[in-house]
Design goal:
The structure holds two protein chains of two kinds. Chain A is an alpha/beta fold. Helix content of chain A is 35%, strand content 11%. The radius of gyration of chain A is 19 Å and the shape is globular. Classes of the chains: A alpha/beta, B alpha+beta.
């Protein structure tokens, strides 16, 4: 078999959902394995080929001293490093601890906290090593993952727009839920999901993090005018992308 | 066929005849799209007949607000325009332009698989007829013809409706585009509900419209019906929800690239792009190329784009319009001023969609009015110093 580029998939602090998106590509999986060699992907195979790797997909955030070291080695072994998902690009839901007291949190969760060796913060991969591309989402959209891999194989820029969810929402002819009274993060959220929640008459939860030029203050001002409380606003901005700069800064204006 | 209706003449039909008209269009292979109630809004989607129309409903609209309420009659068309515009059908949001298949060292091009349906657009308002005419100019009538658009347009049958209700965000009178449909349709309806019953005055706008009308039950419109139809339109014209002063507007906007009002609106604008998506004349698109993983095929897809995205103005070295201020100014000044230089008409038809469907309720008429007052006050102050 010809010499295929080697792909590695790495897991840090995460739920594995984004890696599973790769296995979810059932129809495309055969074509994928013909185009690339899966060299390291413990979710899929116990085979692990040594580096270097042509493309590394990195899931999860950095939350322990061990992982802070391990990501340096992953970077050293990877020609191209792409982070996948909200944990790897923004710190994930676990970054909620960044604002709290780590000792208190560990004591509240674990019966024997003395065995826990964790960092006080959950940080994105880009806080530790240079990242070549960040794919957003909680979880990522598998079509976008295939686009990133196809673009890598063809040596072109991936078509992953960073505008608002509203553009996707309108393209699929949804009726705007926010105008109809449902608070929605769509106008300040990065596209990529295909506007799933508004299509089912729910407000956007911001799974893909901030869009390219988020005016979070402008949006929350409107929510408040429509009756949302500071507590509601704070909470909605503190989820999978709580530590993303635009969401974090705005949420802090609505409470600690 | 001595009684064959002619373009320009007025006839009167019963609701049952309107259903017959829809049935005839369906028999002729048209995909009929018209107003229907979905997701608490009146949208444009496939309809089979009068039962699908939002009879007895109307909309209450304001900046950033849209709600449906019951009317006290069963009017089929007793509402203003909703979130969709007809560009959804004539200029679709996602369109595959071509596919390429690898063939050894070469490749072959394949046209998109399914041809576009023949649309019958049912219930098109005057403002939207003007919007279609504007997109015709952009896509069909210039030096570079978009053939797919031209095909969809050529095969479309248009049934207009003269507005019986002015929405809270409507200002077609200011833009000279309504509320009466005067051109660009095959047939035009005016809904009449009074002591004489529920009926429609029907005007013929084309030979195709005349031919269809000849196949349904119709009678000559009485003078009273013609007068009633005129009164419906006059009443709507007199109750516009908004107003935009267009006198000298092009020069006003083109002369104010640095006005502080642009900063004010930029603080409110989310740069989400909703206004451009709902605008019936906004025509900008982007091109995306996708390839299969094995490199055996590729496709080029055209999608609606917006001047509010950073990529829109991306050229070598980065985006030209990085601030929301510059992007909002670009949209507004193009729509209301540069458009006139480019196409000979304003790009705004006064439908009010950008006002209703802005998540934070930015009102284009208010922005223009505020800017005008500020500029004119500044000019007067300047003259006092002279």
């Amino acid at each position: 078999m010809r010499n295929r580029p080697h792909l590695a998939v790495w897991k840090f602090a995460s739920c594995d959902g984004c890696q599973l998106s790769l296995l979810d590509c059932e129809d495309e999986l055969l074509a994928l394995t013909e185009a690339i060699e899966i060299a390291h992907f413990t979710e899929a195979t116990r085979t692990s080929l040594p580096g270097p790797y042509d493309l590394s997909l990195v899931e999860g955030s950095i939350t322990t001293p061990v992982d802070a070291e391990r990501i340096l080695e992953v970077r050293r072994q990877s020609k191209v490093l792409v982070t996948i998902g909200a944990c790897a690009t923004a710190g994930g839901i676990q970054a909620l601890r960044n604002a709290g007291n780590m000792q208190d949190i560990v004591a509240a969760v674990y019966p024997s906290p003395q065995y826990i060796r964790a960092l006080a913060t959950s940080t994105p991969i880009s806080a530790h090593v240079p990242v070549d591309f960040e794919l957003r989402g909680c979880p990522i959209n598998k079509a976008q993952l295939l686009e990133v891999i196809s673009a890598f194989l063809a040596g072109r820029k991936p078509v992953i727009p960073s505008y608002s969810v509203c553009i996707e929402c309108k393209r699929r002819s949804n009726v705007c839920v926010m105008v109809q009274g449902i608070p929605c993060l769509g106008p300040i959220t990065h596209a990529g999901c295909g506007a799933i929640c508004p299509a089912y008459r729910r407000g956007c939860y911001g799974c893909f993090g901030p869009m390219e030029s988020p005016n979070a203050a402008g949006l929350t001002r409107e929510w408040q005018a429509r009756g949302a409380s500071s507590l509601q606003i704070k909470r909605v901005l503190r989820s999978f992308n709580a530590a993303a700069e635009a969401f974090q800064a705005e949420s802090l204006k609505h409470g600690d | 066929m001595t009684s064959m209706p002619q373009p320009g003449m007025a006839r009167c039909i019963e609701p049952a005849a309107l259903q017959a008209l829809i049935d005839l269009l369906a028999q002729e292979g048209y995909l009929i799209v018209g107003p229907t109630r979905q997701d608490d809004a009146i949208v444009y989607d496939r309809i089979a007949g009068l039962d699908d129309l939002p009879a007895g409903w109307t909309d209450v609209q304001a900046p950033g607000h849209y709600t449906l309420v019951r009317r006290d009659d069963d009017a089929f068309f007793g509402y203003a325009v909703g979130p969709h515009s007809w560009k959804r059908f004539l200029h679709p949001p996602v369109e595959t332009l071509w596919r390429a298949l690898r063939d050894g060292d070469s490749f072959t091009l394949a046209a998109p698989s399914a041809p576009a349906p023949r649309y019958a657009l049912f219930g098109v308002r005057a403002c939207d007829l003007r919007a279609i005419a504007i997109q015709d100019r952009v896509f069909r009538d210039g030096a570079h013809v978009d053939h797919a658009y031209a095909d969809r347009r050529r095969s479309a049958f248009i049934i207009a409706v003269n507005c019986g209700v002015a929405g809270g965000n409507c200002f077609c009178v200011s833009m000279g585009s309504g509320p009466r449909a005067d051109a660009g349709f095959d047939l035009a309806l005016t809904e009449l509900i009074d002591a004489a019953g529920h009926r429609f005055l029907l005007e013929v706008g084309s030979d195709a419209g005349a031919a269809l009308l000849a196949r349904i039950d119709n009678v000559e419109a009485s003078m009273a019906d013609v007068d009633s139809a005129k009164a419906v339109v006059s009443h709507t014209a007199a109750h516009m929800g908004r107003h935009m002063e267009t006198r000298g507007l092009k020069e006003l906007l083109q002369g104010q690239p640095q006005h502080p009002r642009w900063d004010d609106v930029a603080a409110r604008c989310l740069a989400c792009g909703n206004c451009t998506m709902v605008c019936p004349t906004c025509f900008c698109t982007t091109i995306e190329d996708h390839g299969s993983i094995d490199g055996s095929s590729a496709e080029r897809v055209r999608t609606w784009d917006s001047c509010f995205t950073l990529d829109f103005s991306y050229i070598h070295g980065g985006s030209v319009r990085t601030s929301t201020r510059s992007r909002y100014r670009q949209w507004l000044t193009h729509k209301l001023a540069h458009w006139i230089d480019q196409f000979g008409v304003s790009g705004c038809v006064g439908c009010g969609r950008c006002i209703a469907w802005c998540p934070v309720g930015i009102d284009i008429t208010e922005e223009v009015a505020t800017l005008r007052v500020a500029v004119e006050a500044g000019n007067e102050a300047g003259h006092e110093h002279d």
